[in-house]
Amino acid sequence: MKYEGIIIRPPSEADSILLQVTVGCSHNRCTFCPTYKGVPFRIKSDDEILEDIEDASSCRWSRRLFLCDGDALIIPQKRLRFLLQCIGRRLPWIERVGTYGNAKSILRKSVEELKELKHLGLGIVYLGLESGNEDILKRIEKGATTVQMINAAQRIREAGIKLSVTVLLGIGGSIMSGDHARDTAKVLTLMNPEYIGALTVMIAPHTPLQEAARSGKFVLPGIFKMLEELRIMIDESSFSACLFTSNHASNYLPVRAKLPEERAATLKYLSTVIAAGDGTLLRPEYFRGL
Questions:
Q1: Using CA atoms, how far apart are residues 176 and 179, in angstroms rounded to an integer?
Q2: CB-based burial of residue 206 (10 Å sphere; 0-12 exposed, 13-18 middle, 19+ buried)?
Q3: What CATH number is attached to the domain comprising 53?
Q4: 136: domain range?
Q5: How many CB atoms sit inside 10 A of residue 204's CB?
Q6: Beta strand 22-23 with 42-43: parallel, antiparallel or unpaired?
Q7: CA dist 103 to 27, 117, 151, 250, Å?
Q8: For residue 259, what pLDDT is reported?
Q9: Is 234 inside a domain boundary?
Q10: CB contact set of 217 (below 8 Å; sequence gap of 6+)
């Protein structure tokens, strides 16, 4: 299979077949993200993708497939329908197809179109919320409001597709840390996803966020303050049934909690670690990564 540039995927797709259908990210303006800077977004040709699907026909070790890169859901419905049909015919053992999606790409598709994609194998969409605070979303140039994020999430849920939402601990900076945590909990409650993944901000080189940090406009919260954000998000949110994790390499403290049933135990654990303030309980800095 042929890949161009950097290929990223969610931690939960580690064992999936990675099929690159787009290059880069259709938005590519988030101030914290270094991944696709300088990479023009494009959708690969059908011939390129079909050749890779053919190559993947020997990959019977995995029953899941992930559509790369940053936002494959932006592909027009007709082409995406065709590609999923090709995957279904040539790789009939694939049980679930996943993709990243942003609010813009999701809201460009109707519920009926999303239901069609689900019928063709699309089983999960990963949506980066980052923060539920309106001012923070503008500052990081996320390209969507909280209302659009909530509407996009509800559209995915209505279509019967599983939803995984990503949030960023620390993205509000030190001053807005509490507002970030509380507002994110409110928005996550309204989104009501099956999965939530909390990552921790790492200030990447050559990003607008790095420039803001250098100038003093952005001050990263302390480690235990970011863990307090995680505690607040879990404490002040409410879900039907959600797996809340912080198992990404960027995180200082791995958490895996089924909510609501494991809420009390998880909050007790987080409160104990935060109160101790002991860095030896955390992942060492040299083990963290994007």
A1: 5
A2: exposed
A3: 3.20.20.70
A4: 11-276
A5: 14
A6: antiparallel
A7: 10, 17, 8, 24
A8: 98
A9: yes
A10: none
Calpha distance 105→235 (Å, rounded): 31
Low-confidence stretches of the chain (pLDDT beneath 70): 290
Residue 263: C-alpha distances to residues 40, 226, 267 (Å): 43, 18, 6
Q: 134 lies in a domain?
A: yes
Sole residue written with tokens 């990263």: 220
Answering whether pTM is above 0.90, one says: yes
pLDDT of residue 247: 86
Which tokens sit at 73? 């859901």
Q: Is residue 63 part of a domain?
A: yes
pLDDT tens digits, 197-226: 999 999 999 999 999 999 999 999 999 999
State whether residue 31 is helix, strand or coil: coil
Integer Cα distance of 260 and 282 in angstroms:
25
Residue 241 lies in a domain: yes
Split into its structural domains, the chain has a count of: 1
- Identify the pLDDT of residue 39: 85
With a CB cutoff of 8 Å and minimum separation 6, the contacts of 70 are 8, 22, 24, 25, 26, 27, 28, 35, 36, 41, 100
